[in-house]
Amino acid sequence: MSAQIPSAKIVLLGESSVGKSSIVTRYATDTFVEGRDATIGAAFLTKVCSTGDREIKFEIWDTAGQERFHSLAPMYYRNALAAIVVFDVTKYSSFTRAQSWVQELRPLANPQLTIAFVGNKIDTEKRYRDVSTEEAALYANEFNLLYFETSAREGTNVHHVFTKIANHIPLEQVKASPSTSSGKRAVNLKKQQSTDQTSNCAC
């Protein structure tokens, strides 16, 4: 009988329309959906990530970015081993909001939480860029965050984000972390139904 794959809960946070769902979709299915609707409540999926020396089942919660759902966020980042905080490099206000998420996570989440700070939409023309790599990387370094720049549209660095997280989470935390998928479904407040998808592809 094969050993059970250890699981790790990951939550995605960030302002609406920064590309959180597109990042998850690119990672899970290597596709990009143009003009997708905003996430309502949260969406959930799992994916097994193999990094060579370890294999982890990621339980990924993609949360809504609208302010009216902010009060639900603690329900999703509770017991998470990693958080991916996303901003849009062409929208400075989303960068400011992402910093607020980091500050909220620190006192309320797992004290050993791995936080990936992700600037998305780097495929956009440089003249439209509103957040420089230097400024974002400096902030991430100051608060000991993993920093990445991605394009969910083109797939740039998306898999690298999850692989780096898999290698960064202490293995003892992964083995000790309770699974969050059993008996739990995502909350979709618009359709009153859950989004629960599973992928067993390697990173």
UniProtKB/TrEMBL annotation:
<keyword id="KW-0547">Nucleotide-binding</keyword>
<dbReference type="InterPro" id="IPR027417">
    <property type="entry name" value="P-loop_NTPase"/>
</dbReference>
<protein>
    <submittedName>
        <fullName>UBX domain-containing protein 10</fullName>
    </submittedName>
</protein>
<dbReference type="Pfam" id="PF00071">
    <property type="entry name" value="Ras"/>
</dbReference>
<feature type="compositionally biased region" description="Polar residues">
    <location>
        <begin position="190"/>
        <end position="203"/>
    </location>
</feature>
<dbReference type="InterPro" id="IPR001806">
    <property type="entry name" value="Small_GTPase"/>
</dbReference>
<dbReference type="GO" id="GO:0003924">
    <property type="term" value="F:GTPase activity"/>
</dbReference>
<dbReference type="GO" id="GO:0005525">
    <property type="term" value="F:GTP binding"/>
</dbReference>
<dbReference type="InterPro" id="IPR005225">
    <property type="entry name" value="Small_GTP-bd"/>
</dbReference>
<feature type="region of interest" description="Disordered">
    <location>
        <begin position="176"/>
        <end position="203"/>
    </location>
</feature>
